[in-house]
Amino acid sequence: MNWLERDSDSIWHPFTQLVNGFEHIMVEKAEGMYLHTSDGRKIMDAISSWWVNLHGHSHPKIAEAVAKQAQNLEHVIFAGFTHAPAIELAEKLLSILPENQSKIFYSDNGSTANEVALKMAFQYWYNKGYEKRRKVIAFDGAYHGDTFGAMAVGDRGPFSAPFSPFLFDVEFLPMPVNGNEDELIQKFYQLVDTEQVAAFIFEPLVLGSAGMKMYDAKFLDKLINIAQDKGVICIADEVFTGFGRTGKHFASDYLENKPDIFCLSKGLTGGTMALGVTSCTDEIMEPYKSTDIMKTFFHGHSFTANPIACAASIASFELLVSEETQSQIVKISQWQKDFHDKLSSHPKVQNSRVLGTIFALELKTEADTSYVNEVRHKLYPFFLERDILLRPLGNVIYILPPYIIKKEEIEKVYEAVEEMLESL
Fold first, then answer.
1. Where is this site: Participates in the substrate recognition with KAPA and in a stacking interaction with the adenine ring of SAM (predicted)?
2. How many other β-carbons are positioned within 10 Å of the β-carbon of residue 227?
3. Is the dihedral of CA 385, 389, 391, 397 positive or negative?
4. Which residue in 268, 278, 267 sits closest to 310, CA to CA?
């Protein structure tokens, strides 16, 4: 049997339909912008894999850091022990996070970073003796991960439908759009006035998996201000939006009112290793500072603060803050804006939007905009046939390149998108 036959016999892939799905592609090597396949193809990765490869594939600086760390300390239990990579990474992250952030808690992916944040918030109120503070407010259509807590605060749609009886109740606000702000703010006031809300969790400015839906920073600022005035803990899920994607280090950098807890992953290691981070303020930690062992935060993972993952993250961080990468982020943001301006009035485009390095366009179709819109079955192979990896979210096409992309490479992606529009 060849590799793909062996794959079919032994592996269950994520987000993959088991009947009438797409055939998997065997990747033998990845370097920079490109995936090299077993049949000799060279596919441009225009979505940074699963939005993680900030600096492209197999970056030599990150690879060198991983190899060096693997020869020194590959792992150690993080309860009772510590190590330099975890300390150095925490210090670097705190240097670019908002000033109110004071501590870093490590986990292993975006879902768990959000689970940690929710548990921190719930136990914060439990430790303070306010056990009625159990409600969570979230945006309708949000995606915070696939573990149970993360699913509970996310969109109640096809991803979570089989598990809905097991998810805790959440108060969902409609997606903020022009015209519904006053109604949303009024509803938000009513919810927090009950003094039963523990936390407000949100993807700041961009709902990624919902279709790269974007909303105004000023509106989110108002909600955070109202929430914090009532003592509600504000959790920013920056798993996707962190590390330069929106044009700033974090989407929350566009806000005046800073969240209490941050959730980070994806670009954290430059896409090289699995790692998650939840940061918080001193105030969040205060109710945990007790001689009562039952006020301990009993949460951890076997691979918490893995030294190799931390070393990869340090290398990725140094690349991120370099003058070269910051200049590239500015260039990519302008290229994306120019393409948005060009296509915004196209007759086959329902809507196009851009924020920093994120570009998305919503196609006009007979069906509603959603992840399961059937047009995705035509779009995905259309681009792959042209050796470009774009993985549409239903009828929403997005471009999210690594920061190393060149002008001629992104123009090739733009040309393919325009060709697709003309083919419809």
1. 15
2. 23
3. negative
4. 268
Contact 123, 91 (CB under 8 A): no
User: Residue 129, exposed/middle/buried by CB under 10 A (0-12, 13-18, 19+)?
Assistant: exposed
Per-residue pLDDT of the chain (424 residues; tens, 9 = 90+): 899 999 999 999 998 888 877 789 999 999 999 999 999 999 999 999 999 999 999 999 999 999 999 999 999 999 999 999 999 999 999 999 999 999 999 999 999 999 999 999 999 999 999 989 999 999 999 999 999 999 999 999 888 999 999 999 999 999 888 889 999 999 999 999 999 999 999 999 999 999 999 999 999 999 999 999 999 999 999 999 999 999 999 999 999 999 999 999 999 999 999 999 999 999 999 999 999 999 999 999 999 999 999 999 999 999 999 999 999 999 999 999 999 999 999 999 999 999 999 999 999 987 777 777 778 889 999 999 999 999 999 999 999 999 999 999 999 999 999 999 999 8
**Residues at the annotated binding site for pyridoxal 5'-phosphate?**
110-111, 237, 301-302
**Cβ–Cβ < 8 Å for 65, 318:** no
Residue carrying the six token digits 């509106």 = 219
**Residues flagged as binding site for substrate:** 50, 143, 266, 300, 391
Query: Angle at Cα 72 formed by Cα 307 and Cα 77, nearest 5°?
Result: 40
Binding site residues, as ranges? 50, 110-111, 143, 237, 266, 300-302, 391
According to DSSP, the residues that pair with 352 across neighbouring strands are 361
